[in-house]
Amino acid sequence: MKQYHELCEYILKNGERREDRTGVGTIGVFGYQMRFNLAEGFPLLTTKHTSFKLIVSELLWFLHGDTNIQTLVRQNNNIWNEWAFEQWISSEEYNGPNMTDFGLRASKDPDFKILYDREMKAFIERIKTDDDFAKKYGELGPVYGRQWRSWETKDGGSVDQIQTVIESIKNSPHSRRHIVTAWNPAEVDEMALPPCHSFMQFYVQGNKLSCQLYQRSADVFLGVPFNIASYALLVHLIAKETGLEAGDFVHTFGDAHLYSNHLDQVNELLAREPKPLPTITLRDISIFDMKTDDIQLIGYESHPRIHAEIAV
Q: Which whole number is the average pLDDT over 104-131?
């Protein structure tokens, strides 16, 4: 994963400091590109442990068109909890302690962090067990899954972009229109979080399928290792569904940034020696029928986790 290390080093050397919506502050650059040859191994970061099961369950959640965190938390995937929790504590029905600026306060105040963790745990347990509550407060709006599988049209219909691109790859492999977009200007304000990885294009050369992603905003320390692996896995899945082999994953960034409270962790990671990349195997069924256990990671060795607070 030298490509990822080179991105971190480039930002540390060339990045400029900027204020941001979280109040934490970042150092970042605008415009950067990485390329991964998927024949060389599966690009899961080895210089800190990165959970493959979380990546798989989130990607399958997208592919199934789901937008409610109940599906994820029942699989112990907590990636999206903060955004649903923010909707709950901002609602008129919430009557617990004041959680204003909860993400930033929890990262700075140990006592508040205890309170925050307690409220979050109670919220997630209720999401898991109370379907009516989950339907109302676990819903994130028209995020990735909705846009990928059910983009609303002006006549009240919908477009299944994933199925459309699969058919396009099968029937017209050299088309330049193998595109899926999550950025829907008409609905972006209804989303709990506007799409960061917002636009992808597939490309067929010979019997190999490649994909380029445009990511408008990238939390390089926490988010990008997940994004790399998620889209690399998507290339494998779409290649399987179209009878092709996985080619390259090209990752293009707009605003690529490191949060100011992650810089020590980044330097710790860069001091570590990368280990060999793992491989993956896929069960021989349709990707739309897959569950997490149908996708297996082989030969993954990594350095220990490096803890860092998410900026919400």
A: 87
Give residue-wise pLDDT tens across range 6-42. Answer: 999 999 999 999 987 777 889 999 999 999 999 999 9
Which positions are catalytic? 196
Which range is least confidently modeled, 56-60, 176-180, 234-238, 261-265? 261-265
Q: Scanning the structure block, which residue is given the tokens 């617990």?
A: 96
pTM of the model: 0.94
